[in-house]
Amino acid sequence: MILDMILKSLIGILVFTTFSFLCALLLAFLAHFFRTDDSEKKMNKIIRHLPGLDCGECGYSNCNEYAYKVASGEEDLDKCLPANKENLQKLRNIKLRNGENGRVAKIACLATNTSSDTEYIFDGADDCYTLFHHFSGDKKCKFGCMGRGDCQKVCSMNAIKTDSQGRIWIDAGICSGCGKCISVCPTKVIKLVPLNGGHFIACSNNEEESVVKEKCKWGCVGCKTCEHFSNAGTVKVKENLAVISYNENHMDLQNIASKCPTKVIVPIKNQKAYLFSLNEKTSSTETENG
Amino acid sequence: MFGNLLITAIASIFINNFILTQFMGVSPFLGASKKMNQVWSMSIIVILVMTLASIITYPVNYYFLVPLKLKFLRILFFLVIIAVIVQSIELFLKKKNPQLYHSLGIYLPLVTTNCAVMGVVFQNSEFNYSFVEAVVHAFFGGVGFFVVLFIMATIREKLDMATVPKAFKGIPVAFISAGLMAMAFLAIDKSILMKLFS
User: Fold this and answer.
1) Residue A259 falls inside a structural domain
2) What ipTM does the predicted assembly reach?
């Protein structure tokens, strides 16, 4: 009885081992038969330097698919917006063609908790989407950031921050430019700007000067000072709102920004330091006056 | 004969549904039902692997394990066979259609451990199905998997829009809706089908 059982299990072990061995042989044969060539290796190299966000900005559903297209020569590297400069430099070694684009998202509004008066007290769900559908937000300015932070929830890089005054701003050093925040912002106040563009206009209100002044202390009033000081037509005022056309000579933007009476031309790269220095100045003048 | 096959087909889609009545393959059911394109790739692989696995395990079971009286080793043999099938499909796709391979991503290797595939193979040998019956059972079991995944994905897309209490967001509300779906699937009885088709 016991001998029979031992014999049975021995046969089982033997048969199973042989079977697994045959299966392994079959797989090894298949692996040899279907072996992949160099494009696979090249693709793996490209994948390593892609951001891996699967944001879909390039038009493909994930980074793998895009890397495959690049490796086979059907696509250019410049479709990938989130890839940072360092990574693109590495990619250039793999593939020579490359486009110049590093874009970051920026909130074109400097609204703080106190900058614009509220029309009514909103007591509903604490998100922009709900707030926007109650008379386009509780602030008097209907163009700006409502400050409830829907964009912060979708950001996969945690680049969107809130400062001590309740202003929401995007850190250009962290932002990958994937544009997820743009799609959730109900007031469409977030815009993509070139990382090396220099400055951007931090206001979206295109109403008359007197109306803007009444509503918000951080608004672009359309005074055309910037247009006057820009010699190559870098900044133009369209519908009471300044617009920067980003091209090669953005060197004079620094000069123009310092002339802006309401200080809404803000540097892209170190926004926080700039706003901090601005706050220092305003608070010191206030104390002097007081 | 034909009526019998029809009963098997409809029964394995609606009545003996792998996910909702037998509770097999629940993890891909919740994992891959977030987006519609994932549903398509996942269910195509599952249908393919289920059908191939039951085609291959049928002769292995009846011409190899039963004569040698090694039926107690079924679980090991079937596991190895399923793994080999999945691996060969993976190798084949990698060479012939890399784009499809990369869009399938992780779901292809995950099918190896999908218990619905294992379950269909076991049921084929447990219920003593004939070869044709086994293949029909496996194929339509896969179709049933797809149907449930498809419905679940549409429900979850709507659930993202709906106002759900904070504690129930995500997986909990998915489980609740899965439970309600399971109750709906239990409404169909096999005896009604028997009367209809034979």
Assistant:
1) yes
2) 0.79
Q: What secondary structure letter does DSSP report for A120?
A: S
The H or E element that residue A192 is part of is: strand A190-194
pLDDT in tens, A186-233: 888 998 887 777 788 888 888 888 888 888 878 888 888 888 887 777
Q: Closest to B105 (Cβ–Cβ): which among A31, A40, A64?
A: A64
CA-nearest residue of chain A to B93? A34
A31 falls within a domain: no
- Who among A11, A15, A27 is closest to B84 (CB)? A27
Condensed to tens digits (0 to 9), the pLDDT of residues A51-107 reads: 777 777 777 877 777 877 777 666 766 677 777 656 665 665 554 332 345 678 889
B97 at the A interface (CB within 8 A)?
no
| Dihedrals phi, psi of A132, to nearest 5 degrees | -65, -30
A145 Cβ contact list (under 8 Å, min separation 6) = A107, A109, A111, A167, A168, A187, A189
**Total tally of structural domains belonging to chain A:** 2
> Residues A228, A200, A196, CA angle at the centre, nearest 5°?
110
- Going from the C-alpha of B125 to that of each of A238, B86, B142, the distances in angstroms are 76, 21, 17
Residue A224: which region, alpha, beta or left (left: phi > 0; alpha: psi -120 to 50)?
left
Domain that holds residue B113: 2-197
Task: Tally the residues of chain B.
Answer: 198
Inter-chain CB proximity B84 and A64 less than 8 Å? no
Q: Both A90 and A122 in a single domain?
A: no
CA-to-CA separations, A30 to A12, A38, B32, B141, in angstroms, rounded: 27, 18, 29, 28
Q: What is the torsional sign of CA B116, B37, A149, A155?
A: positive
pLDDT exceeds cutoff 60 at B187: yes
Distance from CA of B107 to the nearest CA of A (A): 14
Number of independent structural domains in chain B: 1
Answer yes or no: is A23 within a domain: no
Chain A residues with beta carbon closer than 8 angstroms to that of B92:
30, 34
Cβ-Cβ contacts under 8 Å, A74 against chain B: none
Nearest CA in chain B to A69: B99
Chain segment B108-159, per-residue pLDDT in tens: 888 888 888 999 999 998 888 999 999 999 999 999 999 999 999 999 888 8
In a domain, A4, yes or no: no
Q: Verify that A89 and A119 share a domain, yes or no.
A: no
Q: Which domain holds residue A86?
A: 39-94
Residues A276 and A183 in one domain: yes
